[in-house]
Backbone:
């Protein structure tokens, strides 16, 4: 009991004695003194040193990340297709008596080698191959030497054949005549006949 009392005095004076199990209180009874350890007091014989610990450094991120896509694509297609169609045929036979077609009215033949010195019976034969009648008023027929016949007010019917004589009149073949009696018109060595409409447009060119 003497030791415990002495230890109690030291605890009170110094605040600590021996390990943590010595901390408590004394209770005095009738004949004995008992020691009850404190229930809520905890004494740590060690003190942790001061330390600074840094964990999880700051990381800045964006999710989902920002993606910028700006493709530059240029496609230039400039097809250039130019079709030029220019067709203005002038029916022509360079030589030979074959007929030259122009529209629906044709020259079928030229009788250029007539009788006598002045050959009045020469003629140019025309035929209307269209299903419609054609008005010939103001049309002209001439040769290379510019001998010209101008058609009167006459309508040639579909399929009808007419002749234009040098210096004869034949009513059965429409009665047309240049009435040119000085010489022949159509050269035996070769010539051309030009048939034009009333506006002067060349309709038929027939050469032999």
Residues:
């Amino acid at each position: 009991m003497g030791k415990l009392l002495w230890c109690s005095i030291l605890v009170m004076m110094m605040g600590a004695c021996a390990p943590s199990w010595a901390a408590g209180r004394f209770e005095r009874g009738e004949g004995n003194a008992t020691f009850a350890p404190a229930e809520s007091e905890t004494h740590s014989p060690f003190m942790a040193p001061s330390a600074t610990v840094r964990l999880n450094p700051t990381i800045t991120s964006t999710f989902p990340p920002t993606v910028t896509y700006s493709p530059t694509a240029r496609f230039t297609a400039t097809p250039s297709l130019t079709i030029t169609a220019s067709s203005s045929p002038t029916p022509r036979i360079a030589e030979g008596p074959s007929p030259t077609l122009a529209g629906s009215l044709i020259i079928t033949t030229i009788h250029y080698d007539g009788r006598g010195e002045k050959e009045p019976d020469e003629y140019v034969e025309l035929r209307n191959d269209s299903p419609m009648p054609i008005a010939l008023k103001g049309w002209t027929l001439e040769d290379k030497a510019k001998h010209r016949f101008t058609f009167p007010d006459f309508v040639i019917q579909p399929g009808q054949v007419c002749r234009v004589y040098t210096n004869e009149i034949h009513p059965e073949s429409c009665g047309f005549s240049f009435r040119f009696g000085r010489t022949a018109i159509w050269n035996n060595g070769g010539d051309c006949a030009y048939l034009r409409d009333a506006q002067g447009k060349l309709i038929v060119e027939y050469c032999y």
In short: Residues 166 and 185 are 7 Å apart (CA to CA).
